[in-house]
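Changelog-adjacent note: as of this version, every example in the card shows the full chain rather than a window. The one below runs 459 residues end to end.
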Amino acid sequence: MNRTHRQISLSAVAVAVCLASACTTYVQAPPQRVLVQAPAPAVVVPAGTVSVVIDPPIDQPPPIVIAYAPPPMLVEVPPPMPYFGAVWVGGYWTWQGDWVWAHARWLPPPFPGYGWVQPYYENRGGSVVFITGHWAAPGVLFVPPAIGLSIAMANVRVGITLGAAPIGPYGVFVPAPPGSRLGLIVPAPIGTPPAVVTSAPPIVNVGMVVRRNTTNITNVTNINNVTNVNNVTIVAPPGSTASGQAYSGTVPAQAHLAAALPPVVRAAAPAPRSMVAQPAYVHGADGSRPAAAAAQAPPTPAPGTAAAPAANPPTPRPAMAGVSTVPSSMSQPLATPATAAPVAGATAAVSRPAQVAPPPAAAPMTPPTPTTARALAMPQAATAQAPAPATAAASMPARNAQAAAAQAARAAQRAQRAQEPAAANAQREAAKAAPHQTAVKATHEREKEGERRQREPER
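Full-length structure tokens:
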């Protein structure tokens, strides 16, 4: 009996010891996964970015040459379409003496059937050939500037610092995605809306390309109208993006649909200072200087004195391949010194040469020495050089008059086009009425013939 109690006690102790030591089971909790979100790329918006409301031209304006590339794109999300037929206009970089942001908005076409033509950017010889966005009449196709065409150099407002030259291959392009390195460009087909790169990642090197999906083209005869293309493809190698990863994405080819996509870098466009629409840039209509001379302007010589040579003359920009640039100062023929208006306050210095002491009456006439000839020629040189400021000032009204005449001609063309539908309707109505008039005339002739035959038996 005691042995049995002893065994039960030992079994109870063994169970207790087993439970207290070796028989205990430990369960380890699973590791927790902590998600760390990478910081968003820094927004790179040029200091002093200006947003303006532009009144788009009715016809294709002449191209201009700009010495530096447009900044990266900005983000401007379109609101819902307010009415049927509205066109999303703007949302790109345009020229107003500097690259300014054209505020995007919904606009109706100026005339029935008119279509919107996207802005044109081309890297030609290290400079940008630019044509702003504009309206086009039905059936009028966009004409790219021909190679070798003489294109005027755009004027730069006083106090503007020139930016970086375009970095990328020659040809048509759109500005880089938001947050990209300044100066980079993205090659794209003609007519591509710049807003297609708004949702693309920022780039720090060349390599990103916009390709048109030819399988979605419905009208291959009009390659300049991107509304015939449903979408485009944007590709970039790993070395060109800021993240170091390759990119390939499909984006709608319509500007309002592409601008509505979520961007990688939210570089929001600033609100315009005024909602009053400004006219598009017209070369020579303002008093700004050509881009080639905006970096360093020579000092204006004093009235009646010859201009002194500069100690460090600026290095001229190399000529661009296939482009003949015409600065604004050469857009009008300059007047010769004989016909130029004299400078106010310097009439005496220009009209009267330096007084030279006459030779004695008794002294024989001797031929002048080279030194004397140079001294006598100096007043003439000063007289020829002094009217230069007046000549430049006189050419400014001529350029303004030329710009006003061009605007008046475009207004006359718009009025003529507005009258064309009425004239066409009148011609159609006349064509419809012609058969009726012919039938009426034939009826009258038959009636007269019947009356004539009735009179013949009486005779």
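Structural remarks: The first strand starts at residue 51 and ends at 52.
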